[in-house]
Please model this.
Amino acid sequence: MKKILIDNRWNGSGGIGTFACETNKINCYEDAGFKGKPFSPLDSLKLTIKTIFIRNKVLFFPGYIPPFFSRSPYVITLHDLNHLDRPENSSLSKRLFYRFVILRGCKKAKYIFTVSEFSKKRILEWSGVPEEKVVNVGNGVSRDFYPHGDNMGYSFEYFLCVSNRKTHKNEVGTLEAFKKAMIPHTTKLVFTGVENDFMKNKIKALGLSDRVIFTGFIKNEELPNVYRGAKALIFVSFYEGFGLPVLEAMASGVPVITSLTTSLGEIAGNAALLVDPENIDEISDAIYRVNNDERLRTDLINKGLLHVNSYSWEKTAHEINSHLELI
Model:
């Protein structure tokens, strides 16, 4: 069996970083020693130069940028096709890069890992590679997320949106639905991350300045505390390749309101309130129901805690390793 080397540079970079870090805690592959930013378009050329000197190894890329040429077999990971499917996240340069670099990498790769059946279907449609080449290894949820423990100590009740100011996260729809929901005005909406000018102006225009809070930068070890104190998670993105916050909230004993579209309905199963992210009334009604129906809250919490047992980083790491060992 060939030695497996991993591109460790994604650690700390959102969902890809979580995927890379959590699975390699278990599999413990040797660091390939690549340097620089892994998401740079020039990285494909840099990797080509580096991999010229690597032979008789298997290269595992937890991210989506492959080398243009490699003497060693490799596997890349496409978590989704967000950069192609969402106009606000796309551009001519990105589309060209996907067509001439990433598509070529998909055809040259031994496997293409992805994290949901939704993403697998989209990758197959786009790339035209054989179905057996695209493997849904899934995602897990960290054991740091559990129901009982410290919380942020806020003096008010709040709904939580784990987000990052990107348009496909549907933060404007979340704000509008929150404003429309018939819940007490003392209940607030908490967004993770830092407020930007667009959100500040939108919040002011909606008259929500005293009801919306931004946590600022949150360390990974602080995030479970933010979940635990929430009445519910509102995660109504227009597009997700997986949607880790859905599982993290469920593992924290928090009800979930999420989209029925893209991967989110698949990941949430029957353990969340599923809504059309384009329908403000549906989102607003879900907020009202979770806030006012204690029986529904209890049912969602119990279903979520059961459902999340289907996902683990151990399971994902095993899927990754079993396929890499076949190469």
Observations:
- The chain has two domains: 3-140+312-324, 158-310.
- The chain has a mean pLDDT of 95.
- The chain has 13 helices and twelve strands.
- The longest strand covers residues 3-6.
